[in-house]
Amino acid sequence: MSTGDRDFVIREATGGDLADILEIHNDVVRNTTSIYDRHLSTLEQRRAWFDDRRRNGFPVLALETAGALAGYSSFGEWRPRWGYRYSVEHSVHVRADCRGRGYGGALIEALFPIAAERRVHAMVAHIDSAAAASLHLHRKLGFAVVGTFREVGRMHGRWLDIVAMEKLFPAELPPDE
């Protein structure tokens, strides 16, 4: 994937990126409410996640700058039932020292042509309501708020709300099979 004259490259992630993806993932778990988990992942768990995405034809993208992995994005099945086959849920995470540089937006935007190629109609995002920068970024990228799940998570001694957002893509689809 070409990024023109930007200071980074977005490419398909490889197995060689998993240690860096794990480090980013676990830092997000430890220090934010972006991933509602209290347990850090192991390399084996990240490898299983990566292998599952690839086996099911879903992308995992890596953003590299100055020779180091600065972030990753992906999308996967939103719901397992057949009727949801044109909807996906995405995730994006950027290394703490690289946030605020536009990398998250670039990683999300890089998913759009892949989604179009797969005839995705809806891309869903679930974002912690306190993540103002992420909510703003998603609005800027064309996502619309479709609802808020109140107090569905609990971390750090408090109830957390999730804002549901979606971006619709025009897609010519065959009649239902």
TL;DR?
It is built from 4 helices and 7 strands; from the N terminus they run βααβββαβαββ.
What does this protein look like?
Helices cover 29% and strands 33% of the residues. It has four helices and seven strands; from the N terminus they run βααβββαβαββ. Helix 1 packs across helix 2 (43-55). The chain has a domain at 9-125: Aminopeptidase (3-Layer(aba) Sandwich), CATH 3.40.630.30. It has 177 residues and is an alpha+beta fold. The radius of gyration is 16 Å and the shape is globular. Helix 3 (103-117) links the parallel strand 4 and strand 5 (122-128). It has helices at residues 18-31, 43-55, 103-117, 132-140, and strands at residues 9-12, 60-65, 68-77, 87-94, 122-128, 144-155, 158-168. It has a seven-stranded mixed sheet, sandwiched between helices.
Helix content: 25-40%
Assembly level: single chain
Fourth-tier CATH superfamily name of the domain at 9-125: Gcn5-related N-acetyltransferase (GNAT)
The CATH architecture term of the domain at 9-125 is 3-Layer(aba) Sandwich
Q: Note the main sheet.
A: 7 strands, mixed
Helix-and-strand structural type? alpha+beta
Number of helices: 4
How far is the N terminus from the C terminus?
33 Å
Number of strands: 7
The CATH topology of the domain at 9-125 comes to Aminopeptidase
CATH class of the domain at 9-125: Alpha Beta
Break the fold down into its secondary structure elements and pairings:
Elements: E1 9-12, H1 18-31, H2 43-55, E2 60-65, E3 68-77, E4 87-94, H3 103-117, E5 122-128, H4 132-140, E6 144-155, E7 158-168
Parallel strand pairs: 4-5
Antiparallel strand pairs: 1-2, 2-3, 3-4, 5-7, 6-7
Helix pairs in contact: 1-2
